[in-house]
Each structure stands twice: as C-alpha cells, then as structure tokens.
Amino acid sequence: MTVKQFFKSTAFKCIVVLLSILLICGVFLTVMNGLLEVTDEERFARAVQKIYGKSVETEEISLDGEKTSFDYADISEAYKVKDDGNYLVKVSGKEGYGGAVVCWVVVDMSDDGKEIDGVMKIAIDSAPGESYISKISQGALDALAAKAEYGKEAMGGFAHGSKEHGGDYIATGASYSMRAISNCMNGAMDFVAAYALGVAKSDFYTDNGFEYLEMINKQETSYTVESSVVTYNIVTAGNSPAGAFTITVKVGADGAITEYTISADGSTAQTYKDKVFTQYTGKNAAWFKSVIGDDGKTNTNANYEANGIQTCATRSNYLCLYAGLFATANYQKAVSTPYTGGDAQ
Amino acid sequence: MNKYKRITLDGLIFQNPTFMLVLGTCPTLGLISSATSAAGMGLTVVVILTLSNVLISLLRKVIPNEVRIPCYIVIIATLVTFARMLLEKFVPDLYDSLGGFLALIVVNCIILGRAEAFANKHNPLEAAVDGLANGFGFTCALTIMGIICEFLGSGSVFGLHVMDFKIGIFATPAGSFIIYGLSIAVFTYIINQFEQHRRVKANRLARTNMLDKEVA
Lengths: 345, 216
Fold this sequence. Notes:
The complex is a heterodimer of chains A (345) and B (216).
Chain A: H1 3-8, H2 10-36, H3 40-52, E1 58-60, E2 73-81, E3 87-93, E4 101-109, E5 116-126, H4 138-147, H5 163-172, H6 175-196, H7 204-207, E6 222-226, E7 229-235, E8 246-251, E9 257-264, H8 285-292, H9 301-306, H10 314-329, H11 331-336
Chain B: H1 3-14, H2 25-31, H3 35-58, H4 68-90, H5 92-98, H6 109-117, H7 124-154, E1 156-157, E2 160-161, H8 173-215
Antiparallel strand pairs in B: 1-2
C-alpha cells in the first residue's frame, strides 16, 4: 500500500473519525470540568448544611505536625465549630467495599471541652466505588453515631462489643461501607483526642513490633508468660456481621498451640453459634499462614475447605484463625517482651 | 399507524427495555429498593439516551461501520461523564444516592442497544423520539418497581413513611429480583392478553369483510 492509497483507505478514515470524536469529547469534558467542578469550599458548605441545617462559624485547624493517619482512617480536614465547641472532621474511612468512604464527622465535646462525649452527627461526603452507599439512610448513620463511644478501639472498623452494631450493618445491606463509616468515626475521635485533649493512644503491641494486629483489639488483648508458655487473652475485632471474640490461647515452647478456648463467641446468634471451628491445638504459625496467607488477609471458603475447616461461619472462623496466627506468630516476641499494656492488666 | 406513535408505543410498552427486552438489569436490581433512586436513575437515562441517539443519528453517515462501536462508546461515556458533573454540581443528593450506578450507565445495554439498533439507521428526530420513549419506558418500569420494593421493604414511598410493617428482603437486591421477575410476568401477561384481543378483533373484522363480499 502506498502512502497515497493509505490516505484514501477506510483505515485512515476510521482513525481520523475516531480521533476527532475523542478530541472533541476530550475538549468538551475539560471545559465542562472547569465550569462544573465542585470546589472544596462548596463541599464544606454542603457538609455543614447537611449536618447543622444552617451555616455555622468555624475555625480551620492546621494539620501540620498532627497525627492524621491511623490504621483505619486518614484525616484530611478539621475545623473547630465556634457555635457549639465541637469538632468537624473530614475523614476517609478505610475498608469499604470498593475503597474508602469519606465522611464529615462531628465529634461531640463535653461542655467544658475536656472530654469527648461521642459523635454528634455523620454525613457522607463521597464514596467512589461504593455501589450500595445509597442504602445507608441518615437514620442508620444517626443510630451509629449515637452508639459511638470514645475509648473503645476501632478494631478494623467495629467498636468493641460490636454485635449490636452488627445489626445496623445488616439492616442497611451495605455492611462494608458501614465498616468504613465506623472507621471514620473512630478516626475522627482519635484525631480530636490527640489534638484537643493531648491524648496519645498507647499501643503496646505496635510499639514493641508485634505482627498481625489488624483484627486484634490491641487495648484489650493481654498475655502472660510462664515457663516458656505464653497464655494470651485475645479480644478480636468484629468482622461484620460477626462480632468480637474473646479467646484464651496457650502457646508452648515449640510455638504450637496447646490450648484454645473461646470464652466470648461473637458469631451471629442462632445462625452460626456452635458452627465456629475451634480445633487449633497443635497448630503453629506456619499452618495458620497456609490457611489465611502470609499477610493474614486471605479469607476465602476455598482455603477453609482445603484445610477442612469450612463450617459456613466464614467470618467468625476468620477471626478465630487470625487470633491463632497472632498468638503463634508473636510467640518469640511475647516471651522476650513482658506485657506492660494498659487497660487489660 | 403514525410512525412516531409506533416508535413511542414500542419504546414505552411493546418493546419496553426493562420488561420486554430485559435490558439494563444491573441498575434495575441495584436501585429499585428506593423509588427516588429508581426514578432519578430513569430520568438520567432518558436524558443520556435521547442525546446519544440524536448525536449518533447525526453522525451516522460520518462514522465508518468498522469503528462505530468505539465511537458510540466514546460519545455515550462523554454524555455520562457530563451528566455526572451536572448532577454532582446541582443535585448532589441524587448524585450520592445513585452512587457507582451512575458511571455504569456507560455500559447500559439500553443505550448502546438503541444506538446500534435504531439511531444509526434513522434520522435525528426519529432517534430522539425513540430515545425519549425507551428512556421513559425504562423510567416507568424502574419507578413502579421502586415504589413496590420501597413500600414492602422500608414501609415508605419516595421516602415518605407509610407503614411500620416491612419485609426486609425487599430492601435488598434479592427482593428486587423477586419483584422484577413478578413484574415481567404481569407485564407480559397483560401484553399477551392485549395482543390476543387485538388478533381476535382483526380476525372478526376480516371474516365480516369476507362475508360482506360473498353476499355482494
């Protein structure tokens, strides 16, 4: 084909037409994006309107030097509301279904401003990728906010003793998005605690380099060491719809479990009670990793089936497996580090 | 029958994209648990479908056959993105309630289907009528099912509380699926009855004409 033939060919016409349409559409959208862009000020005004129903006087908080990144949430903006002394925080909650959920959270302060009373209101700012976000009504958000209590660790998004909260998650039909929203609340309260009250959350396990903490309640989990045997009292996170488990795990000198007892069963009542797999005696860290992966994040029925622990209570089983992994993988660390954590002592 | 009347009736009833052609099932199942979301999605589709039909009809003699599908997709994606910008700017509540399904309009079978089956073969006016008819057919179907699902699943209609009794499953896609199936069955039954009635009437008329001819 000569150059002249190419320019007269259908292929050339196709390229020209397609590129022309792409160019026109691209230019059109660029112009429109400039004209219709929603500015940060507009978003903020909308959030304030949604929360307070009127405009309020706020003072922006500089985030320089503040702790804005948490395991479960990131803070992007914060304001002190002059009208009521509360804090309005824009926070991105992790672990939604299709990504993060960005919310505005009003952290409710006591009258003297020296304590966090909880969360006054939550408004969703944006949730790209969360198809079911519309299923979460303002009523469900208000109910969630009413239950927020500062001092209860986030644990992957669920406040401790989250079985009640689990009911809310199920009711909305958007459990993963609700988890991300719960993370937003916890992140906002932790930020305000650090910023306004100067409370730095002590975290014994992170400070001492323990691994596999994501589904573990770091404040309520403790351990003792006696004759090379580590006895853990583990409180897990919730894993919607399953709530937190409390499990006593003993790990012997060979790094394998010698006793595994569930004292508080977080599985959904009636449906999954007694279906949780508990036969972990003799299992070590290598075994747990072979089931839920080296990063402890593999949570699939196929893996459970291959290892003979499929019981239908997938989410509860994951928490129990994770507790086993935490106990066995951190055995050496626990032996060499006396427990000096706070609340659980 | 008038050409435009036929196009309109086809889009709204006889070739209804939701009930008769079972197109656009993904947003249907995802959004009909709320009547407001369903109606909002339907109206957004009306605008995008009408505009895409008109644009594709206008460009039908310019776009080579070999690249027509990529061209249609680019045009539809542009319109959807534009609609997203407009909704986010001016109707943020609806934008939030439609969530990820708004972007999914790009791959809605109804829009690409009408572009391929109708708009690229007809003039812009006919294409616009077809877009409006199919869009409103989709909107009506979604809104009717949205009202039923919201009423049963949440005890409300368009967000207004109606009763305390509710059946949770109808607030989920599983319940939407049941309502969708039942709606298709009812709609098809009604259309079949109508068609049967029309055939009987036409046969009777033909027989009468024949008898008249014999007598004459």
